[in-house]
Amino acid sequence: MADNLKQYSQFADYEFTIGYLNIPELDYLRQNSREFRSVNIAQLLEHKLSFQDLVQEIKQAAGNAKAVFLPACFGLDNQDFFNSLQQATGLALFELPTLPPSLLGIRQHRQLRSRFEQLGGMMMNGDRAIKAEFEGDKVVRIFTTSHQEEPISANHFVLAAGSFFSNGLVAEFERVKEPVFDLDICGCKNFNDSDRFTWTNNRFVAPQPYQSAGVVINSACQVQKKVWLYRIYMRWEMSSEVSKVLNKAVVRVLQWLRH
Predict the structure, then answer these.
(1) d(Cα 18, Cα 96) in Å, to the nearest integer?
(2) Domain encompassing residue 99
(3) Is the model's pLDDT at 31 over the cut of 70?
(4) pTM for this one?
(5) What's the rounded mean pLDDT across residues 46-55?
(6) Which residues pair with 134 in a beta bridge?
(7) 69 with 141, same domain?
(8) pLDDT tens-digit profile of 129-162?
(9) Confidence (pLDDT) at 251
């Protein structure tokens, strides 16, 4: 890390030294590599180690340093423990992410979940949306793996399913699709969700077009689905009361979409 920082002009004139914290209590975790993780280390440092001993160890290792970078393993639930260390040591302390699981990510997730529940939200861990019901062009109900017979109703729904890794997008043989609402898919210039030969680049290290895939949204961040226009067009076409002007307008829109 020190070598990487020196490559930046703002750190070129700084001297970097590596220090070590002598914490015998960690020896027990070192005996089992599966236990020597940031989460377990954080629990030990916060609950089983003398706070003053930890403060003295950090101050001794830091010496006269202007800034101290520590692995992110101080405080599992929130920032309070790390802030207490900063205040007690009187040093400019900074956290660096470690190998997964990331303590910073866990901390942020817990804080966001706590705030969400304070506002009246309810988390259903392990559940997953599988399909939706529409009334006109609005989603009114969704079905989940745990609620396949009793759908969940709401005035508004937020799509935050992620990409391929979290199954927010699914790649079938013939197309890339969004599995819950079957929304329109877009991507980079050369990406076509219905042509699998455009999904990848021949060079392995090059940016892969499929990574740019996502759902189409409008200026209000509302997701889009062309099939709604087809349904509207079919409804208008079967109605003798609809004017020819509207039919022609819809036909032009459909022709533009096909291109």
Answers:
(1) 14
(2) 1-107
(3) yes
(4) 0.56
(5) 84
(6) 139
(7) no
(8) 999 998 888 899 999 999 898 999 988 888 888 8
(9) 56
Under 8 Å between Cβ of 58 and 85: yes
Q: 80 with 3, same domain?
A: yes
d(CA 180, CA 159): 10
Residues 102 and 133 in one domain: no
Give residue 230's pLDDT band: very low, low, confident or very high (50, 70, 90).
Answer: very low
Tokens of 91: 């040093």
Cα 58 from chain centre: 33
Q: Is 245 a domain residue? A: no
Residue labelled with tokens 């391929």: 164
User: Are residues 140 and 222 both part of a single domain?
Assistant: yes
Residues 102 and 141 in one domain: no
Based on the fold, state whether residues 141 and 98 are members of the same structural domain: no
Q: 153 and 76, same structural domain?
A: no
Q: How many Å apart are CA 12 and CA 156, to the nearest integer?
A: 51
What gap in Å lies between CA 51 and CA 57, rounded to an integer? 10
pLDDT surpassing 50 at residue 98: yes
Residue 167 domain flag: yes
Evaluate whether 132 touches 181 at the Cβ level (below 8 Å): yes
pLDDT digits (tens, 9 = 90+) for 153-194: 988 888 888 899 888 999 999 999 999 988 899 998 889 999
User: Quick one: which of 108, 110, 130, 213 has its CA closest to 165?
Assistant: 213
Within a domain: 149: yes
* β-strand partners of 95: 70
**Per-residue exposure over 106-136, b if at least 16 CB sit within 10 Å of its own CB, e if not:** bbeeeeeeeeeeeeeeeeeeeeebeebeeee
Confirm if 101 and 110 have CB atoms less than 8 A apart: no
Structural domain contains residue 196: yes
Q: Are residues 41 and 79 in the same domain?
A: yes
